[in-house]
Amino acid sequence: MSKAKEINVDINDTKNSQGQPISELLVGKKVIGNIRQLEDKKFEVVNLDKDVFHVKSFDEGVTTLIRHFNLHH
């Protein structure tokens, strides 16, 4: 059984090409996806493969991106 590795995740608040505020998630210097708030309790998560997920909280979006990153890298 492999040991769990600790990873550092940074969140960079910026704007997308349409000028909408988004939060980029970075592992090291690599962007693994972004999160955009659509409504009060609705967030859109987009990973590097351009897969789109809709979640109910920002934390759930972060978890979704990290889970997808760990699964495929």
Question: Could you explain how this protein is built, in words?
Answer:
The chain has 73 residues and is an alpha+beta fold. It has one domain. The protein contains 1 helix and 5 strands. It has a 5-stranded antiparallel sheet with strand order 1-2-3-4-5, covered by helices on one side. The protein is globular, with a radius of gyration of 13 Å. The mean pLDDT is 92.
Strand order of the largest sheet: 1-2-3-4-5
H/I helix tally: 1
**Radius of gyration computed on alpha carbons:** 13 Å
Mean pLDDT: 92
How many domains make up the coordinates?
1
Main beta-sheet strand count, sense and barrel state = 5 strands, antiparallel
Strand-residue fraction?
A: over 45%
- Unreliable stretches, pLDDT < 50, 5 or more residues? none
Fraction of residues in helix: 10-25%
> Roughly how many Å apart are the termini?
18 Å
Inertia-based shape: globular
**Number of beta strands:** 5
> H/E series, N to C?
EEEEEH
Helices and strands: which structural class? alpha+beta
Give the gist of this structure.
By secondary structure, this protein is α+β, with helices and mostly antiparallel strands. 21% of the residues lie in helices and 47% in strands.
Topology:
Layout: E1 9-15, E2 21-27, E3 30-39, E4 42-47, E5 52-55, H1 58-72
Antiparallel strand pairs: 1-2, 2-3, 3-4, 4-5
